[in-house]
Amino acid sequence: MLAQPFVAALCHRPDGVVVDATFGRGGHSRMVLDRLAPNGRLIALDRDPQAVACGERLQWQDARFQIHHAAFSDLERVCGGTMVDAVGFDFGLSSPQLDEAERGFSFSAAGPLDMRMNPQQGASLAAKLGKVSHHRLTQIIRDYGEERYAGRIARAILAARKEGRLATTGDLAEVITKALPGRARHGDHHPATRTFQALRIWVNDEYRQIDDGLAAAIRLLKPGGVLAAISFHSGEDARVRDTIESHVHPCICPPQLPVCGCGRVADMRWLQKKPLRADGDELARNPRARSARLRIAVKCDDDGTAGHHQCGQPGACASKQPTGR
Questions:
Q1: Residues 238 and 264 occupy one common structural domain
Q2: Are residues 88 and 11 in the same domain?
Q3: CB 29 within 8 A of CB 41
């Protein structure tokens, strides 16, 4: 079960300051609070006003907890200069967002063409589709959804919109499905899954937010602090992996140089580079966890080690010495 190692990593210092950067409906936050000491502190944030309303109820119940209506890019502002002991991210959508048709995320129930995680901010999917070119929409569906038939899907979406046949997410799912060749309409996932994912990422500027959030989290971590991230598709996971790896192996010298000359020193170390996956029991309870992947890293101490992290995995950070490769 990914929730257990995720929360255990965040609570390595029970009296510390922990950040839950994706509160959702508070499942992870409640598990963290169960493990935190009386003098521990949990800061949570979410872009979704409904999630924040849920968090405000928890805030009244537990003085150790604070909730903020904020995006990943607001992480440093939310923390107000406080250095923290752990930051956790659980990317993707919460179950209520998927299950509530009026949010516009679901292709299984007709809802508005919205897809905004924060309905109070930014343009809806319907508004953005009114301004996008075929070339740009193809690029979005291909790059964010890894959809092989991006061009024909983009063409079908824009044609349906022009003809007034695109009013709901149900219409959108039907247009996408019909745009695919017959052999691509059958498989383990709904044929509109990749395109809906791509459009959601586009509407919410998710990749920039993830990049900003990960960078801010690393800056905020105390030495020995932990960064844990659960991703649900390859685009998210690649950003987690590559961001952390750039801090674990920061040297930018040409590989043919026998001695490092850039002087860049690692400030992160992997605790779980190979992602953990959900086991059979968790998948039976929550089929949506089938694509979840958890990676964990720790901030180096001032002496270049992760020895103060209480995870049972002490050791020196990679690339500590700039004098050799």
A1: yes
A2: yes
A3: no
CA angle 300, 214, 200 (to 5 degrees): 160
Give the CATH number, domain containing residue 259.
Answer: 3.40.50.150
Residue with token string 């089938």 = 290
Q: Do the domain assignments include residue 313?
A: no
Helices within the chain (DSSP H only)? 3-10, 27-35, 49-61, 75-79, 95-99, 125-129, 134-145, 150-162, 169-179, 193-204, 206-220, 234-248, 280-285
Q: What are 27-76's pLDDT values in tens digits? A: 999 999 999 999 999 999 999 999 999 999 999 999 999 999 999 999 99
Q: What tokens were used for 212? A: 């900003």
Instruction: Mention every residue, 6+ apart, whose C-beta is less than 8 A from residue 246.
Output: none
Q: Are 204 and 168 in contact (CB under 8 A)?
A: no
Q: Indicate the pTM of the whole model.
A: 0.87
Which residue(s) pair with 287 in the sheet? none
The CATH code of the domain that includes 165 is: 1.10.150.170
Q: Rounded to an integer, what distance in angstroms lies between the CA atom of residue 32 and that of residue 316?
A: 28
Instruction: Say yes or no: 260 and 293 in one domain.
Output: yes
Domain carrying residue 56: 3-95+206-299
